[in-house]
Amino acid sequence: MGRELLIEKQGNEFRFATIEDDSLVDFSLERIDFGSIIGNVYLGRVERVIKGIGAAFIDLGLGRSGFLPFSNILDNDSRHNALVEGASVCVQVIRGEFREKGPQVSMEISLAGRFIVYEATSNRLAVSRQITNEAERGRLLSLVKQLRQDNEGFVLRTAAEGENFQTLEYEINYYRNCWNEILRKRDKENTPALIYEELDIVKKTIRDHAQDDVLKFHFDDNSIFVEAKEFCDAKYPSLTTKLHLNIESIALFEKYGVDEEIESVLKRDVPLPSGGALVIETTEALTAIDVNSGRYINGSDPEANASQINNEAATELCRQIRLRNLSGLIVVDFINMKTEKSWARILDKLRLEFSKDRVNCRVLGRTKGGVVELIRRRSRVPLKDALFVDCKECNGEGVVWRIETVIYEILKTLKKESVSDKTGRLVLNFSPEISDTIKRNNYEDEIFSRPGRQLVSRVVQDFAPDEYEIYIQEEEIK
Length: 478
Description:
Layout: E1 3-10, E2 13-20, E3 23-31, E4 41-50, E5 55-59, E6 66-69, E7 88-95, E8 104-106, E9 110-112, E10 116-119, E11 125-127, H1 134-147, E12 153-156, H2 165-188, E13 193-196, H3 201-208, E14 214-219, H4 222-235, E15 243-245, H5 252-255, H6 258-265, E16 269-271, E17 277-282, E18 286-292, H7 302-324, E19 328-333, H8 340-354, E20 361-366, E21 372-376, H9 383-387, E22 388-390, E23 399-401, H10 403-417, E24 425-430, H11 432-440, H12 444-448, E25 455-459, E26 468-473
Parallel strand pairs: 1-14, 11-12, 14-15, 18-19, 24-25
Antiparallel strand pairs: 1-2, 2-3, 4-5, 4-7, 4-13, 5-6, 7-8, 9-10, 10-12, 16-17, 17-18, 19-21, 20-21, 22-23, 24-26
Helix pairs in contact: 7-8, 10-11
């Protein structure tokens, strides 16, 4: 069964959910005020070069310096010599800010399209691992060899499978022109400056998820739907018929059960079908996942029981890692099995499940201590960090909802209640912190312009920072 993408917008926040076989397999959110800069190219200025840590710090004009490891520059590249304090360098953001760390940048610039990734100076040719047919891989490589110029490099993306010469030529020429524009701005602009900006989050999502197995893109906002349609009409006409606007009164995520699944993802314990469970704990250094047998005692063969639970755990932990967007070192303590054949099956299962992950995750294998090690590249902040902040009342030992997350829920609830069959006016009571954020982000119009029902609001001084209430106040009968 193919995949369906849900795109929901409330205020300045977008939420994206990927449904596969009626199950949520991927979820992300982005706030316009804190938009992603991954993929952007900057003309930066070298602030410091620290050979002791093998990196330089680059002023990008963003307030926080970019971190440039020497490993992100080819060893034989003459650009090493250009890394002197005060010099201008052209860099691309490959990882966003995370907690106390600034964005990570690279001098190896690549421009991602739907079918190809254009690398102006890498000279490498590669094909997506998702394209497994060797004849097709050879055909695609033959086409780009005919199209390449000088030291250009290309990565053929999954969506390139089956595409013809003209389609690839059109996209390659487009990004070749983008690269030439980057070079023009590099030689013209003063540092620091943004000289190439990635697509906005909705267009980028459509581009990156536009494989043939995507059945539908669902939208809940008409203006975003129109923008997406115009984008597809201009660049990817074959996708236009896959765009659908939700016109039902029930919210998009509620309709597909996404909200309930997100709540379960935020819990420490995750049940498995057989009665076992995963216990997921994340620290600064790593994420530890423990596999428990729970009440599963089927049969009398301990090895078969362990294999059954571990197999379920392998499938579910891959899903949980994707949904929670966990990254870095991940260690998994599976139930012990005696045979190497059993362990090989579990490791193969993990590799198969992670092959579906858009973010690179390596299964390193089993350590002498008996745990399985994984390393997953960091692509965006973990879901928990995006939704919560540390609780000030308990010195950071607990978490509370981010005010931005609360406002998203307020807007969503108001949208639902405004079309309710109940009579009366809507009442919204909220904390001073919520009130300040609404004013600061100019949400008043969106909140108070709900059609068909009067809305009254009140700031309640003794509400907790993330506390609010919404109800319908029935009209008094005179």
